[in-house]
Every structure is written in structure tokens, then in C-alpha cells.
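Hey team,

Filing this mostly as a record. A colleague (T.K.) asked me to run one chain through the structure pipeline before their review meeting, and I want the input and output archived in the tracker in case anyone asks later how it was produced. No errors, nothing strange. Just documentation.

Input sequence:
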Amino acid sequence: MIVLNSQAGGSSILAMLALTTLAACTGVDRQAAAAEPASVESRREVVGKESNKMPPQRAPGEEKPPLQGSGEVPPQLLAIFQDDLARRALVKPDAITVVSATEQQWPDGAMGCPQPGQMYTQMIVPGYRVVLKAGGDRYAYHSDTRGNFVVCSNGTAFKPVKEQMKGKLPAD
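Output structure:
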């Protein structure tokens, strides 16, 4: 047991005790622990030697480089949007023009058009934003890469026309 007689002497003894304990716990040589810290140059030299030993390698099963988005909306997805707009605006598909089509990284499952009271997936959702024009009006289609989409108008999401029509057919 160590008894400290003065404040100044006590703090230096306490510091040495802490260094000794730390060195013993970490397996570091006590003399090395008490020595001056390594210079920036010597640390860079050690890091340089370590990085030259083995070049970085891909993880197993990762032979192909990850696919980067082309930025283009797939034609089959564009056709789905045009079909939906033709039904929505009651126009022929050839009367629809593409104003813009961009690849998006939506912040969550709301795809840029969250609705009050709804819960959404809390992860990045890759997809597309396509603006179509029909009959003088513009329609913003927000989708994921699998073809799930909403039409976003003034912050309100509208489901695909086919989904809106479900259950609304007259009974026989």
C-alpha cells in the first residue's frame, strides 16, 4: 500500500502507478510505456511497412465488382408508368411524353412521398423518379427498382390505378 504525503509528489506517483498498471494490463513493456511517444515520421514508416506487406483482397464470393447505376430507367418500368398514366389521365399511351427520368436513392420506403400515419421501411431505397406529361399536366412517378411505385402530387401519394380499382367493381 502506498501512502501519499504531498499533493505534488502524490500526483506523480499516481501517474507512474497508472502507467505501470496500464503496461501490465496491455502486455506493454514498462520501460517502453514510460518512454516518450513515437514521432509521426516513425509511425508513418511503420504504417508504410505494414501496408506494403499484403495488398488488399476481395472478400470471398465478391468476384464481380458491384454494379453501379446507369442512371437510366429500365424500359419495362417506363412502360408500366406510361400504362398507369394512360389509365389515370384517360389518354392513349402515345400521347404521353417523358419530361425527365432519373435514378434516385430514396431515404426510406416512402420513396419521397410520405403520408401521415403510415410506417415505412427505414433504409435507403434505390429507385427512380420519372416525370411524365399527359394532357398538359405533369405526373411524378416515384418507384423502387422492383417496380413498386406511387404517383406523388403536392406531397400526396396516389397508388397505381390498378390497385385503386380493386374492390370498386359493382357487384353482380
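Quick notes for T.K.: Confidence is low (pLDDT under 50) at residues 62-68. Residues 15 and 147 are 64 Å apart (CA to CA).
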